[in-house]
Design a protein that fits this description.
Chain lengths: 109, 114
Amino acid sequence: GQNIDQPTEMTATEGAIVQINCTYQTSGFNGLFWYQQHAGEAPTFLSYNVLDGLEEKGRFSSFLSRSKGYSYLLLKELQMKDSASYLCAVMDSNYQLIWGAGTKLIIKP
Amino acid sequence: GAVVSQHPSRVICKSGTSVKIECRSLDFQATTMFWYRQFPKKSLMLMATSNEGSKATYEQGVEKDKFLINHASLTLSTLTVTSAHPEDSSFYICSASDRDYEQYFGPGTRLTVT
């Protein structure tokens, strides 16, 4: 079956760095997405990786290893506003999105 | 975990016709369902929120007469794109929320209007 795994919850300190991992097993692969979702709001697109390697975008970076079925989202210089849920989603060979359950990130002062 | 399905997964229709997309919560009762539109590499755009048994609440700029939403039961919501045009071609994603307010996302429906 198809499966996306990511931690349920993580806690980090303001100003620090946190890495949110996502492992996947899907039928085919057409890219991996990371979204940020604040409570009560629509998910916001963060990144899209389809090739192996690291993509950096400001304080956020996303890494993909297709051979390992693994991605991570790296958040640097954490701010209180980064407290949110982070969703990992993979597009399979049928261009269907397989969603992870989301990681709730709690930032403490 | 909670599962949300969408049907069809992919649909091609001719301009001027209508197409219906179903969103089902398979193992829980969804008090609220959300319909989103996904543009390539963009954030999900919330189109409307629907609560079972009541009229949907549409986001600003979304035509309620064009995108008809029905949430007739606690496990089913439908989005009907009426008189579809090529610019309606997109990836439509639904999500369902239970009483704990967690959102569970569907796999999406790719609509192509020719």
